[in-house]
Predict the structure.
Amino acid sequence: MSPFYVTTPIYYVNDLPHIGHIYTTVMADVIARYHRLAGDRVRFLTGTDEHGQKIERAAAQGGVEPIALADRVVSRYHELWQELGISHDDFIRTTEERHAQGVRAIIERIHDAGDFYVDRHEGWYCTGCETFYTEKELEGDDKLCPDHGTPTEWKSEENVFFRLSKYTEPLLAWYRDNPAAVRPETRLNEVRSFVESGLRDLSVSRANLAWGIPFPDQPGQTVYVWLDALTNYISALGFGAADDALYRTFWEGEGTRIHLVGKDILRFHAVYWPAFLMSAGLPLPSTVWAHGWWLRDEKKMSKSVGNIVRPDHLVERFGADSLRYFLVREMNFGQDASFSDQAFVERYNSDLANDLGNTVSRLVTLSRKNFDGAVPQAPAEESPLAEAARTAVADYRKAMEDFSFHRAIEALWKLLSQANGYLVENEPWKLVKDPGHREAAGAVLWSGLEAVRVVATGLLPVMPDTALAVLRAIAAGDEAPGSLDALAWGGLAPGAELPAPEALFPRIDKEAFLEEVAASAGPAATGAGTEEKDDKETDGSMIDIEKFFETELRTATVTAAEAVPKSNKLLKLTVDLGEEAPRTVVAGIAKQYQPEEIVGRQVVIVANLEPAKLMGVESQGMVLAADVGGAPVLLHPDTEVPNGTRVR
Ligand code: MSP
């Protein structure tokens, strides 16, 4: 069993996870699951990056201690990873003592190599990146960070420096001798030209920063957050600890060590990290794999831009596996991709509900009905689908090993489409009607079911629960196979009892879903008309009172309420605003409020909104509610006031 170590970046705890963070982790999980099936000895690490100024400031803004902020976000990460079926073997937090121990150990080695010195450090600092920039790297007169687009600040302090410049040649040699050191190739070229342009020494400590690991033997200095964070990859294996067996197996031994990262943090992983390791005399990773970004409205999805998509509504509506499928299928690993709710629902309906779900239910229904509720006999001669399956499996395996995940799925879907074509051509539904052709019908159905079994087996790393549900639906066993050997043609046992089919992927009404998203999350989630709002959120600027009064808030009494058909979130309210005619207002509160319970209540309405159609019902305003973790709690006046009273 060959050791195979795969890591995600460790996530900052100043934000809850969004689709971008989930992406790296899901991809690492797909890789880990695939390699376990391939028989490797896999270790999969993820975790959180909890030190540094960014976190210190976010905690101060929230009025909490940094560790309290970290604990809260970490518990959300744990929950989410469980919900998404992430099969990590370890979760490292940089605030753990085992990590600090590893950091001290690497610093000692770098120190012994003579690669540290103390000097004054001046430059433009971006807290978002936790990094210094030169004048020429910054944008415009405002000295904006090239990555975040936010202002940098001038810093001048005594720091410990690492002799990065000394590693220019060794790094170039590493790239030259190991073409897989940085992937994809475009990223290798990018990193190489950065190094060729000359490396400056790097400051690896910060003064006046309490929230971090104290720099050994340098009073008043804290370890630079990237030297701290990058070391997680070995501290989690026990580097620097008394028991470092995992470290010796997964980092020092023969085997594969892969860091998955987003392209924004490539330089840290493909330049600084290998240089630290070289200095410390430790082995280097086999590959730093940089993927692209999820974009929304052409911009990188990020909290500072204000265009993030949280996973909750997608998981709730489609299930975790469908989200995993979408992320794997929709992005060409390495390139950027755009996220939209529309693309999501379309992919779900066409690939999962239609291609996979319908094929399974058609095959199972026909087989159950005509072959005593069981898998029919396999053909005496090899099925024409066998060769197609062998090709699909070879393409799938090659693509998975190459991290070309969307191609791996394409290979499986090609087989699915060949299986469907084969059914249409041979019409088993007609053959079964003629006793003379019953055996032939059975052979066709068995072949179709067997093709589905191969597809579902290939899907195990991507959609672990759903793939198993498909295998159970076609009576291919109760447990998920533990090896890629199960991809070989011929594994489905004739005679196995087929359970009554259940809808694996109920179709989702696209229009209704999109309207639901628009109603529950507001314009920010739909991408429509967000420019102004986003700008405000990013720079945190205030609005003047005039601007606030542009929004007309008024009191109103709910006179009637009913559920909006086909929606589990929306209620249609009739409200009396003290005007001549009552108004209709659609509110996303159906999960929290029964229609009868709010009739007669006074509420607060935004009265001057453009009417909008939600699930076919025109809404002439919006009801105000406190957003408690996504669950609305209605606001109402303290004592009853005339309807139409302005709220200021
Ligand atoms: N803490 C550092 C990593 C230290 S690793 C030793 C960090 N954290 S992060 O939370 O900001 O980002 C973590 C990962 O999420 C990065 O790989 C980043 O590329 C990824 N993503 C964040 N937004 C993203 C998208 N919009 N799209 C895809 N991935 C992106 O950086």
